[in-house]
Write a structure and sequence with these properties.
alpha/beta; hydrolase; 29% helix; TIM Barrel; glycosidase; 7 strands; 181 residues; bacteriolytic enzyme; Glyco_hydro_fam25_subgr; disulfide bond
Length: 181
């Protein structure tokens, strides 16, 4: 993967297909997904500073058994605690990285606040600082930089199209869908 600022996107950057899942997806047929061309899965591990996804371990085990490259993601709640506190919580509850050739570095999921203001009440500079705090804590513990998952709109609105992570944290842009193409 390579990072491009959201406004610079020219088309698909990667042809590797995969998906992310959480406790909202209860019956996942990993073998069928693999047969349809998916090769990686990223499973929700944590949210904010207190929520551990109850399906994380089961989904991860099923993904491993089906042969997927896999990883974990953390759904950020920047208004509830610091980036470093949430990174530590993520690391303590499934977000670690293992040098086994099958485990991806963790992913930080930054999306609209589902229960309040779009940018969690933070200014663009405060949001960037929160993300830096998370990224620094995660990379300091694992030796790997986390991926950052978001949408064009969220990134432009909440960080002012900040490009400072382009040298080290891959940007994963959301593409919502239920099928593998």
């Amino acid at each position: 993967m390579r990072y491009m600022r959201p406004g610079q996107l020219q088309g698909p950057i990667s042809t590797v297909q995969g998906f992310d899942i959480s406790h909202y997806q209860t019956n996942v047929d990993f073998l069928a997904a693999y047969g349809s061309g998916a090769r990686f899965v990223i499973v929700k591990a944590t949210e904010g500073g207190t929520f551990i996804d109850p399906k994380f371990q089961g989904h991860t085990d099923d993904a491993v058994n089906a042969g997927f490259v896999h990883g974990a993601y953390h759904f950020a709640r920047p208004s509830s605690s610091s980036g470093s506190q949430q990174a530590d919580f993520f690391l303590a509850n499934g977000g670690t990285w293992v040098a086994d050739g099958m485990t991806l570095p963790g992913m930080l999921d930054l999306e609209n606040n589902p229960s309040g203001s779009q940018c969690y009440g933070l200014s663009q500079s405060d949001m960037v600082n929160w993300i830096v705090d998370f990224v620094d804590t995660y990379s300091g513990s694992t030796g790997r930089f986390p991926m950052i998952y978001t949408t064009n709109n969220w990134w432009n609105t909440c960080t002012g199209d900040y490009s400072g992570f382009s040298g080290y944290s891959p940007l994963v842009l959301a593409r919502i869908g239920n099928t593998f193409r």
